[in-house]
Each structure stands twice: as C-alpha cells, then as structure tokens.
Amino acid sequence: MYWYEYALRYHGSKTVLFALYLLVDSVREAESCLRSQGWEDANLPSSNPQFYDPAVDEHVVLGRGDDIALKVVLISSHNWPGIVPPTDDRDEAHYPSLPQLYSALAHRFLDTDCPDFRRYLLIQIDYLCQDCPALASPTFVTERPSDIQQFHLDWRLRSLSMLRPETIQHLRDIRARARRGEWTLMYEGTADLGGWKIDRTYEGKLVAMMQAREAARSAGQGTE
Q1: Looking at the 3D structure of the chain, how many domains does it have?
Q2: SS3 content of the chain, % helix, strand, coil (to 5)
Q3: What is the extent of the structural domain holding 53?
Q4: pLDDT band per the 50, 70, 90 thresholds, residue 68
Q5: pTM here?
Q6: Which of 2, 6, 9, 26 could serve as a FRET partner for 62 with CA atoms 20 to 30 Å apart?
C-alpha cells in the first residue's frame, strides 16, 4: 500500500515525494520480489527524516542507481492500526482511504516512544490537516473510532503542545479511557485537564516583539 508522501498527495496534500514508501504484509517477500527484478540495497540521504520506529518497524531500502526517485522503502504493515495491504490489483486500491491514513498516523503518533519518528508523524498529520478540508468536517470526528476522536479534536484546536511528553501521556490516557467506554467527548478540548498547554499570552508577546523589531529595522533602512 502506498504510504507517507505518496498517499498524502493522493488525498490532496502539497507535500513533495522523497522516496516511494510501501506498506507490505511481508517485507522479506516484497524484497525478494523486487530483487528478482534488479533492485539492490540502497541508502536514503542522511538528511532523510526518521520514518520508522527503530524498536518495532521492520523495513528495507532498495534502489536502482543513485537517483533518489528510484528508491523504494518497504515497511511492515503490521504495526499500523487498521492497515491491511490490498489484494486487488487496481492501482487505486493500493491507496489508503483518508480515514485509514489519518487514524493509522494518529495511533502511531501516540504509540511510539521515538521522538524523531513522532516528529515526522506530526509533519504528516499537519500536511493532512492543512490540505484536506474533510478533516475539518464535524462528521469526520464522529465517524472515527471513539479512541481517536478526542485526539483529533485536540489536534485541531491547537491548544496543546503535541510533542511534549506530558501531552502524549495525557492523550494516551484519554485513548485508554475511551477504549474502556469511560470517556465523554469534549469538543472544547482537554487542555484544562492535562498535557502541556500552549501559553498564548507569551506567544503573543513574542510575536509582538518580533514585529516591533522588524518595523524598527524597516524604518532604519528607509532613512539610509
């Protein structure tokens, strides 16, 4: 199944393609198939983001030549909730639906303990939220599984610092309670209950200070 940037672009995101990421049922079988067609061991650039969790994700990078456009990354689908590689040969069947893509990224964001991988997942989810209007629809929330609904609301409200460990644990606790049927959805967000709340007052002061500096710099250039 097409994954990451390739899947994002399919759903309207304006992200660029770094390599072709594929979720597969068996990394070894997929690797063997590609090697039989001339694909060889390859490396991604050192600047490439952390696209997997080293503790749990099996993956292989293959390529043809030095062109990054000819790099394929095979990743096991087994750690991605709700993702089952299709058996249908039609190309469009190999793209995840928007709900599948979002939910899998969100759950992995909460599941992983790898900060760099979580940061990469944050970028992926942000691209979806920016470029896919469907994610802002009230029905998108209610149609998601109950254990990820509050995560989506809090993400869109932007009141919590999502990468902070305090926020991750807070949202993990909510997910666990939702799975036990002990959570009532809070459309106003949960920043007052836990997590690391963004200080909008302090943020506003920083913005004002930067704007004042820029105005002073522009005024100084105008008198030269």
Answers
A1: 1
A2: 50, 10, 40
A3: 2-136
A4: low
A5: 0.86
A6: 9
